[in-house]
Design goal:
By secondary structure, the chain is an alpha/beta fold. The chain is built from 14 helices and 10 strands. The chain folds into 3 domains: 4-164, Spore Coat Polysaccharide Biosynthesis Protein SpsA, Chain A (Alpha-Beta Complex); 169-261, Alpha Horseshoe (Serine Threonine Protein Phosphatase 5, Tetratricopeptide repeat), CATH 1.25.40; 279-293 and 303-358, Serine Threonine Protein Phosphatase 5, Tetratricopeptide repeat.
Length: 358
């Protein structure tokens, strides 16, 4: 059977590294750990799983570190993870099934990335990432921050999910990214469209809304950004405006996203929410219905499953009932129950319909 190397870059990950490696150690043939300057027990923990531990001097460049880790692999295929990622048991089983049937013609395997889960273990936010690549293709990482892996050839879109488990160090990592971008700006380095997007995200997360908006707008006006970054930029521009109390700006940027693709479900729901607040229930229902056009379909780019499942049905329950369509309201509620029966608002509506039937 073909061999696979797991390649990771780490720094001060004693809190999460064992959990990650426990979840994959029996799935891979080799574990490569590249440490970029840990001062805690990270390397000691890594040594319990592998002898292939290397030091890499941190030069404010994630791609450089990842490419170095790939250079140490000897397997026919390379898989990459971060230290706060895990494969849950069901995904470990799915990995084994995939790997046992994988042919040599496959160049890339993508997996879902679940960045957060609800109390029932369902993903709140997900997207695809290319997790396994054929080593002989020499695919490279690009970008100092929020790096991306070039890829091509025969790509398999698997149903396997990698689950992100946030640690207490998340804020520190965000500060590090912010400092890197600030150093780029201070040195006069030209930011790529991707850099503009992610620097603006850092600024937004740090509450620097006006500066964030300027970089989002620069990205959009350049007309050189990836379509998914452009769509997210519209959403985050709207978020900045809302944080500043600018509801008209919020509304404008939600609609701006339609320039780049058909209306995505999250934008439909957010527009529906605005109309619901204005008690324009008929118009609001239209937008929630549009969100459900994606029900059961895989979205391109990033996805919030709530916006194609229980949430629009919950809101349609309200809208239909307010415009006198009780049968439609009950039908929408039953769909919301199917997806999320324990949500407080769904349970409230269950009680409402039970009383109505008495």
């Amino acid at each position: 059977m073909r061999s696979i190397s797991l390649c990771m870059i780490v720094k001060d990950e004693e809190e999460v590294l064992a959990g990650c490696l426990d979840s994959v150690q029996n799935l891979v043939d080799e574990i490569i750990i590249v440490d970029t300057g840990s001062t805690d027990r990270t390397k000691e923990i890594a040594a319990q799983y592998t002898t292939r531990i290397f030091d890499f001097e941190w030069i404010n460049d994630f791609s450089a570190a990842r490419n170095y880790s790939f250079s140490k692999a000897t397997g026919e295929y390379i898989m990459w993870l971060d230290a706060d990622d895990v494969l849950l048991p069901k995904d470990q089983d799915a990995f084994r099934d995939l790997w046992s049937g994988l042919t040599d013609e496959v160049d890339v395997v993508s997996m879902y990335y679940h960045t957060s889960l609800d109390g029932e273990g369902r993903p709140l936010y997900l997207y695809r990432r290319n997790r396994i690549v054929k080593r002989s293709k020499n695919f490279r990482w690009h970008g100092a921050v929020h790096e991306y892996l070039e890829f091509g050839g025969n790509i398999v879109a698997s149903e396997i999910a990698v689950t992100h488990r946030k640690s207490e160090k998340t804020h520190t990592i965000s500060d590090r990214n912010m400092r890197i971008y600030e150093s780029f700006v201070a040195s006069g380095k030209e930011l790529t469209p991707r850099d503009m997007f992610y620097y603006a995200n850092e600024l937004k997360d740090h509450g620097k809304f006006e500066l964030a908006k300027s970089y989002y707008m620069e990205l959009l006006q350049s007309e050189k950004g990836w379509v998914e970054d452009n769509i997210r930029a519209c959403q985050y521009l709207a978020d900045c405006c809302k944080a500043e109390g600018d509801i008209e700006g919020y509304r404008m940027h939600l609609f701006r996203s339609f320039r780049y693709d058909r209306p995505r479900p999250e934008f439909c729901c957010l527009i529906g929410d605005l109309l619901t607040e204005d008690r324009n229930y008929d118009a609001a229902a239209y937008w929630y219905e549009q969100a459900l056009d994606y029900e059961g379909k895989e979205l391109p780019g990033f996805s919030v499953p709530a916006y194609t499942t229980w949430y629009p049905y919950l809101q349609l329950t309200l809208c239909y009932s307010r415009i006198g369509l009780l049968d439609e309201a009950k039908s929408a509620h039953e769909k919301a129950v199917f997806y999320n029966p324990d949500h407080p608002s769904v349970r409230h509506n269950t009680s409402f319909f039970e009383k109505l039937s008495l």
